[in-house]
Amino acid sequence: MKYQHELVDGIFLLKLLGDLIGENRGPELMELANEQVNNDIKLCAIDISEVRFINSSGIGVLITILTKFRNVEGEVVLINPSEQVKKLLIITKLNAIFTIVSDREEAFQELKKS
User: What does the pLDDT look like over 89-113, one tens digit per residue?
Assistant: First the structure.
């Protein structure tokens, strides 16, 4: 899995590419989230439109990132999951925990509300 990240208008934007299976990138992603929270960034958008597969470790990474931001009264939204990933989010009931939006603009609008 690869990832890209940037800070846009006070929102941490994380784009994930490939398979999110926790492996060696999981701790890296959690450290990135920690850095943002430590720098007083409270809003995060995770673009998972190019994630093909997520396993339980990958779900753990997403939940940990969500928890880090919510612990400082922040919020995380997921952008445009594939049909397969969307089904997984529904099966695991994570669609009730995460806000899921269709694109970056909608993510920014949603986050600005929180």
Answer: 999 999 999 999 999 999 999 999 8
Q: Cβ–Cβ contacts within 10 Å for residue 107, how many?
A: 25
The candidate with the shortest Cα–Cα distance to 44, out of 21, 18, 62, is: 62
pLDDT digits (tens, 9 = 90+) for 10-29: 999 999 999 988 777 888 99
Instruction: Encode pLDDT of 26-76 as tens digits.
Output: 889 999 999 999 999 999 999 999 999 999 899 999 999 999 999 999 999
Number of structural domains, the chain?
Answer: 1
**CA 56/CA 64 separation, integer angstroms:** 12
Range of the domain at 48: 2-113
Q: What is the CATH number of the domain that holds 58?
A: 3.30.750.24
User: Quick one: tokens of 96?
Assistant: 């009730």
